[in-house]
Design a protein that fits this description.
By secondary structure, the chain is of the alpha/beta class. It has one domain: Rossmann fold. The chain has ten helices and seven strands. Strands 3-2-1-4-5-6-7 form a seven-stranded parallel β-sheet, with helices on both faces. Helix 4 links the parallel strand 4 and strand 5. The chain is globular and about 60 Å long. It starts with 7 loop residues before the first strand and ends in a 22-residue tail after the last helix.
């Protein structure tokens, strides 16, 4: 991105947890941030915590927004542009686990609501910022994904389906805008000890499955992945260093993203860090390869 006078980032789901950690990382990098969530009091509290950490001339702003409501999302982007004059980075962090349990047992409206929050709540902000990004010929979009995108998660089907959709949407949008100075990537931040983890454990092994519950319980007991790990990857992708990365799903924990600059051509010229099928020949089998 060429305009380094004041970088501005918009972060959805910014009132707690990973959203707050991402905001703090970007503030440390010299960004001003606009945070949105549905809870005004929580937003005001995080604003109080983060504002003293801003470098001179930078600030934290907050705006209540339900990211599944098109009019509210449009207003959010309008307010951000009115406040700062421009926008450089969009980070779609708002998300939920949704209902937990067997598909035929869970509440259908809750299942649909989770899809709306996780998918529409990612697509709508992207749609709203693109005219501004295209007019400036630059912009960064970072969508928070998770393990549900690459692994089946029995009994948490809305979360798994929606996060896979977010990644494929990320890859698709990245190709749409690649020639216009805009990058779009997805981040898997690791297993986090946040409110979502608490909800999962509260549901219990009979609801989410004993194996998965025990795995999450052990992660929770060990402290989980520090929020700062995923936040650091978002900071990297929002920086000049991350400008060559586009259309990828990147694990904050497992992928060597700090070395991506040295491998930019390899990454751009291949399908690494993308969703794809695996055919039998890739597993040493001599059948079914057409």
């Amino acid at each position: 991105m060429t305009d380094t006078t004041e970088r501005v980032s918009l972060i959805t789901g910014g009132s707690r947890g990973l959203g707050e950690a991402i905001a703090e990382a970007l503030i440390t990098d010299g960004h001003s941030v606009m945070l949105c969530a549905r809870d005004f009091n929580a937003l005001e509290e995080v604003k109080v915590r983060l504002s003293p950490k801003c470098v001179p001339g930078r600030r934290v702003s907050v705006q209540v927004c339900d990211v599944t409501e098109p009019a509210q999302v449009t207003n959010l982007v309008d307010v951000t542009l009115e406040t700062y004059g421009h926008l450089d980075v969009l980070i779609n962090n708002a998300g939920v686990y949704g209902p937990m349990g067997l598909l035929e047992d869970i509440d259908w409206e809750d299942w649909v609501r989770a899809i709306h929050i996780n998918v529409m709540g990612t697509v709508l902000p992207c749609r709203s910022v693109l005219p501004h990004f295209k007019a400036r010929g630059q912009g960064r979009i970072i969508n928070i994904s998770g393990g549900g995108a690459t692994n089946p998660l029995p009994r948490i089907s809305a979360y798994a389906a929606s996060k896979a959709a977010v990644v494929r949407f990320t890859e698709t949008l990245a190709l749409e805008v690649a020639s216009q100075g805009i990058t779009v990537n997805a981040v898997a931040p690791g297993a986090l000890n946040t409110q979502l983890m608490d909800q999962l454990l509260a549901a219990g092994p009979d609801t989410v499955g004993k194996t998965f519950y025990e795995k999450m319980r052990q992660i929770h007991s060990s402290g989980g992945t520090p929020l700062e790990v995923g936040a650091s990857l978002c900071s990297y992708l929002a920086s000049d260093r991350g400008g060559s990365v586009n259309g990828r799903l990147i694990s904050a924990v497992w992928d060597p993203w700090r070395e991506f600059e040295a491998h930019a051509e390899d990454i751009a010229g291949s399908d690494v860090y993308t969703l794809r099928r695996i055919v039998p020949s890739e597993r040493g089998m001599d059948w079914g390869n057409g």
